[in-house]
Every structure is written in C-alpha cells, then in structure tokens.
Amino acid sequence: MVVRNANGETLVEFTGLGDVIMHGGQVYTQQNITPSTQVSEFIIGNSSECLLLVNSQTGDLYISGRLYPGRNTGSLLYPGTMFRFLHFDGTTGGFLNPQQYDNWLLDFWNPILAGSLVLHGQVVSLP
Fold first, then answer.
1. Strands 67-68 and 83-86: what pairing?
2. Residue 73: phi, psi to the nearest 5?
3. Which of 32, 74, 76, 86 is deepest in the core (most CB within 10 A)?
4. Whole-prediction pTM value?
5. 82-95 residue pLDDT tens
C-alpha cells in the first residue's frame, strides 16, 4: 500500500514483506492522534479513535500504539480483527491491531496497545 500526497509524491509505503518505507517523514509512536481539519491526511482507525495517520504535508507517520519491527509475524498470536499487510503469497507481512490484546510473544510483560504496528520487516527512511 502506498500513501501519496495531492501531487502524487510517495510519502509512505507499507510493503507485503513487512517493511515501512518512509520518503522523508518521521515515525512517532504512542501518540494521542487528533486528525487535522486543515491538512489532508491518510487515517486508519477503529470505531472510537484514530490508530494510524500519515500527514500529507510532512509525510510523518503517527502510530497510537507501539512499533514492533523485525518480528516473525508468521508465528504470532493475532488479535481477532486487524488491518494486515499481505505478501503476494498470502502470508502476513505486518499488521495494525485495532484493540488492546495480550501477546506474550511480542511483549511478555505488557499488553499490546491498540494501534500498535507489528512488522516482519523494518522501518526504512529514504532522503
């Protein structure tokens, strides 16, 4: 999935291999996200809150939960519902969970917060 601005410039790419490619913006985690009424934004949310937001002017990515890169997404316990990034062979490259849940394979001591982004790959920043 590719998020572009109004000029067609790529801001963020979510790949099926589980990488997030940032084209100039920054990543901010554990944010209380309030969408802007002044700026066009790409938003993924659940019924009560904004979980992920890409600002179309800056290319910044805001995640309401934590970021878990480099995880073996094939061996994880998945939440009941999620937004998945799929590889062409159908395997899960990454996912954004819409509600808090427990997963000791990801974080033994803490619940996985709603809006956490779990990636098989890494976050890569391009200039």
1. unpaired
2. -65, -15
3. 76
4. 0.86
5. 888 888 888 888 88
